[in-house]
Design a protein that fits this description.
By secondary structure, the chain is α+β, with helices and mostly antiparallel strands. It contains four helices and six strands. It has a four-stranded antiparallel beta sheet with strand order 2-5-1-6, with helices on one face. It is flat and about 50 Å long.
């Protein structure tokens, strides 16, 4: 029985008070765990640019640009908004599609347009407008386009 587990008499007032306290503590802990597990919606910031955007820049210019991205990402991380980010390798990638029931693989991520996806940031924001605000402060807006897409949760 419950009384045996706690080593007290079930009729004891002290035992009831002790059990009530344990339940209250367990409920507070569970509520805190639930609230901390609830996160803000996630948004994917896709960084698109013309492949020629960074061509012809000196190593010092490129280092200064990279440092701006690092500082911006560091600020997001400090605010608890950054989930992950990566630069995508230049000039690589494959597109995969089915044509007449057969898989067709094409070299390069290039489309008819002149833009490529150069990287991404996965962030958390309270609303779409907040995510757009974060994206507008990204250094990439000076070099290309930042596409903002909300991640739709699909389960645990």
């Amino acid at each position: 029985t419950i009384a045996a587990i706690y080593g007290r008499c079930a009729g004891s007032r002290r035992w009831r008070h002790s059990l009530r306290k344990k339940i209250e503590i367990a409920c507070r802990f569970t509520l805190r765990a639930f609230v901390s597990a609830v996160k803000e919606p996630q948004y994917l910031l896709l960084l698109h640019e013309d492949p020629k955007t960074f061509a012809g820049r000196t190593p010092a210019e490129m280092q200064a640009i990279v440092e701006r991205y690092i500082a911006w990402a560091g600020k997001l991380a400090q605010e608890g908004k950054l989930v992950s980010s990566n630069k995508l390798e230049d000039g690589t990638g494959r597109t995969v599609r089915a044509v007449n029931g057969k898989t067709v693989v094409t070299d390069g991520p290039y489309t008819e347009g002149r833009e490529v996806t150069g990287g991404y940031f996965l962030i958390e924001a309270a609303t779409y407008d907040d995510a757009v605000g974060i994206a507008s402060s990204c250094p990439h807006t000076e070099f290309g386009v930042v596409e903002v897409r909300q991640v739709e949760p699909t389960g645990d």
